[in-house]
Each structure stands twice: as C-alpha cells, then as structure tokens.
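Dig into what follows:

_____
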Amino acid sequence: MTSTTSLLKEIQKNQETFTKSGRKIAEYILMHSDDVVTISISDLALKATVGEASVTRFCRQLGFHRFQDFKTALAVDATQQEYGIDPNLGSFELSTTDDVIDVASKLKNNLNTILNDTISPIKPNEIKLLVDKITRCRDICFFGIGSSGIAANYAYTKLMRIGLKAESLHNNHMMYIRASLLKKEDIAFFISHKGESQEIIKSLSLAKKEGAITIALTHCHQSTVAQMADHVLITGDDQTFIQGDSIGTVMSQLFMIDLIYTLLIQREPQKAQDIKMKTIKALG
C-alpha cells in the first residue's frame, strides 16, 4: 500500500471478507484512522475488543508483515496533505486545487471504473436464468431503502412500461406487509448497497418464508442479504467518506437494472415495443 487513501479504500471495500474480529478492527480503523497511527497493537486490540493475534492476522491479510508497517502506511496521509490532496474529499485523489473541469473529469473516470467493476463479476448464465424467471413471474416487487429506493422505483417504472406487473416498496411497514403476501410465482428483488439494512433483511426473510424467488442487488457478496437471497447480482462501488452514497453507487445499481430491462426487451422486441407505445399513448 502506498497511500492512506488506497489503504482505507481497500479496507472499506473488503470489510465483508474479514472475519468477525477483522470487521471490528476495520470498523474502528475507518472511524479513527488518525488515532491508530499513534497507538500500540495492544491498544488497538483493546479498543476494537479483539485479541492482539486478530490484529496481526488483519494486517497480514492486507499485505503487511507487522502492525508497525500498517501504521506507516496510514501515516502517509500527512504526506498527501503536503501536496494538497485531501483523502476525505474522495477516493480518487481529488485535490483542493482542482478546478471544475478537473473535478468533472475525475468523476467521469471514477464512474467508468465503477461500471467496469460492475460488469466484471457478471455471470451470463445467471443473468439469463433471472431474465427467464422474471419473464414467467406473476408479480415482481422491488424493495429499497434510502438511495437504493431510487433504483427500486426506477426498476418498477421500467418494467411496468413493458407489460410486467411490478411494484416498488421503500416504506418499512409496506415492505413487510407486501413481502408477507408474496406467492411462489412472485419475485422479490432487494436492492441494498451494503446488504445489511435491517428493513431489507426482515422483508427478505418474510418473502422467503412465503416461497417467493428472492434476488439481491448489492455490492457486498458476503453480506447478510447476499447470503439469504436465492440469486445475487454484484455492483461496483466507490463510496467516499464525505460523500456517503455516491452517484457511482446509484449508477451501478441502475446499470444492472437497465441490463435486465434490455435483455427482457431482446426476448420479445415487438411485444415490448407495442406495450411501450400503448403506455406512451396513455400518457399523451
């Protein structure tokens, strides 16, 4: 690792691959990175409520032989500050001296990277299977909280306009009610970036209890939602500490939805066109 930005990004993106103790350490480091560079391995173990051996294993998993080497990588933050780079502004080395065009160009390049990371894990046969199931389902319900609700609403609108019976749920009470009323012929499609939203987890559990087909769209393949769902679609990610849910997060979700939508149209293009024209006329 050569910079704090890249190291913290690596920890953030791979939290789900760590052990239970490793996730505790990662969470503490991400919240208190400035403090970690000045404390001992025993202090970190105490603060993260893990054993010292767990800290050592955590560092080695990230490619550092010693805890001291890990701390040195974190301390590079000070060097970055000297060159006008603020690691809290973004994960793509956004400088405080960048003008508007510089920032726009970096955002565009960042989006390209996120979309490439979304395409890379795609399994064509799995996608084709999901398109088959969506084509045959009775109802498809999209569940999403917060920014993932934007993607859920987008998916519902797209699929409804080509003739599928779709719904979008983002209120927890309505999510629970609808999930409990699903049937085996229905699909419950859950969108959750980190895959740990309690509202989504409870809704998914209710849907599975009723025998519905469950699909998860998430960045974290080892998250609770991903582990519970029948099928999992993985998105790219580049959330930054100051931005929270970035445009990249939403764009990667919308991209996957558009991929499924386009493949559905590809199956029966004339039928899709006729139905869409009918909805366009209704709006006119």
